[in-house]
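Ticket #4471: structure export looks truncated?
Reporter: QA, pipeline team
Priority: medium

Steps to reproduce: submit the single chain below to the structure queue and open the exported record.
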Amino acid sequence: MALPARVLLEFDPSKGDEAHPVRADLSVAVRTGDDLWLASDETATLERLSRVGPHHFAAHERFALHDFLDLPADEDEEVDIEGLGFDGQYLWVAGSHGLKRKKPKKRLEEAEQIERLADVVRERNRYLLARIPCVPAKDGRYELKRKADAPRRVPIGDKRPLTAAHLAFDGKGNELTQELKDDEHLAPFLGIPGKDNGFDVEGLAVSDGRLYLGLRGPVLRGFAVVLSMELEEDDDDEHVLRLVRRRVAKDTAGDRVKRSYAKHFLDLKGMGIRELRTHGKDLLILAGPTMVLDGTIAVFRWLGGAGAECDEVVHDDRLVRLFDVPHGAGVDRAEGMTVWDSAGGASQLLVVYDGPSDRRKAGEAGVYADLFPLG
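Actual output as written to the record:
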């Protein structure tokens, strides 16, 4: 494969902090027109860059999720944003939905480092699954709103305003994790931190009103997991979403199983999912290691994935490996991607990285992303 083209993402250094500069922890990317939406997994904010040149995005604006959604914890607690998708009206946001194990730090005494490895934390903002109206303003840039007028072109009779809303929270998670407590495949992993092959959402895509969540972990016998579901507004609160129960499977006796989510098991050769994107009738998958290590990172095409609705096992005859994404030792780990349609009609993938190397950094707060031909 030819070397990818580079795209400069130029952030405002005043909108980050010394410990967590925005460019250092990019986890997602979504393009809406001439705007690019990004997020760091260390904050509770979304970052918007606007196109200022053919391969240059700048004019950085920051949007705090607390301004649009009623999060369960305060604004200083990170959401660990790992999923971002756009359906033409709403920007959808997903936190990791997982536990966090503290990391040993060399500056501490050995006993303290060992103690940190036993410390598992549940942060309530990580259980965010939400939508925010994302509409073009008069200057052409897309903006987030807590409430917005319905677009002019909507189905007949559906003139409801667009409203920011999130999946209902409970004391320890949300409605989805509550339902998963009885799941024969995933329940055992809810109590394991994400970086230990525990439950960890790291991808989100939307297709025809159906939401797809890709899991970095668990990987089961080499098979990665995608959950798909439909959400609807709560009858009593327009800012709360509920899962829709429907028939998604048959049990071994042939009886229909009614559930609020479907499970799709993908043969990604031991890799977990880092990001999902719709592309026509297919889903594009960014896949990589479940654990914190330097391993293969690759992009797959799941043929027909954007229409998947029921439990299934997806073997490699429906999974096309498009290309591998290069990385360094502990740096340049691909975390997010978005489809980039060029003027000539050819599609490319814009890939953003966590832990950029020095060669990828530009100036005080800029960083280079890569454009790969999609084919």
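Status: closed, not a bug. The export was complete when the record was re-opened. Leaving a note from the reviewer for reference: The mean pLDDT is 92.
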